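Closing statement on the orotidine-5'-monophosphate sub-project.
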Amino acid sequence: MDNSLIIALDFANKKEVEQFLQPFGDRQLFVKVGMELYYQEGPSIIHLLKEKGHRIFLDLKLHDIPNTVKNAMKGLARLDCDLVNVHAAGGKEMMQAALEGLEAGTSMGRKRPYCIAVTQLTSTSEEQMNKEQLIPVGLLDSVVHYSVLTKEAGLDGVVCSAWEAERIREKVGQPFLTVTPGIRMKEDQAGDQKRIATPNFARNAGVSAIVVGRSITRSADPVQTYQKWIEIWKGVHS
Ligand SMILES: O=C(O)c1cc(=O)[nH]c(=O)n1[C@@H]1O[C@H](COP(=O)(O)O)[C@@H](O)[C@H]1O
């Protein structure tokens, strides 16, 4: 998992995914399938990506009562992805249930997928969190609090912004994954993301993996853009 650049395949259907991946040839990538794509294509998109040898983060952000999450995770485990996630706001019992489900659904002899929890979405600002969620603390404190809860539930790490990763490591220790979306080059549009950081910043903050969507998928030459991102992320141009 460490030092991965995960490409968010936020596309409407399988055809768009194939068009995007075609110029990458046989190159094996770490890709993320989120709700936009999974709700349209279902398990078949996972089978297709696995056949091509890609590693997969299945990002469905489960958040429901523990029993429902447990049974849903049991089914998702059978897809044999590398990484899945839940919302930490669902609580410790729900997160423990997610793990139980994953373990129950993982075939004998296989390793269960890593399971991480979303703390505060990278599209959330401190002001929004205070006013809309009525959480009366600083955003960093909320993210660290959810990270501690996630660790106590036995999960493998969190989704957070690069700004919180160092503090989480100090508080929670290792091993604990910090997977960070909201990554942008200086010249990129932030769009709906509020807590953004550059790949250089993320690397210096010691995050485990970055998630990059539109900066690569919507670029004029995705293969070249991906290559540029990889070089910066891996520190070739640092
Ligand atoms: O769980 C996620 O992957 C996720 C959590 C979060 O807090 N913020 C976030 O942006 N994401 C996902 O990461 C991707 C970011 O995409 P871009 O903003 O296009 O780079 C999207 O697929 C989001 O669904």
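The domain at 4-233 is CATH 3.20.20.70 (TIM Barrel). With this model delivered, the sub-project is considered complete and its resources will be redirected to Aim 3.
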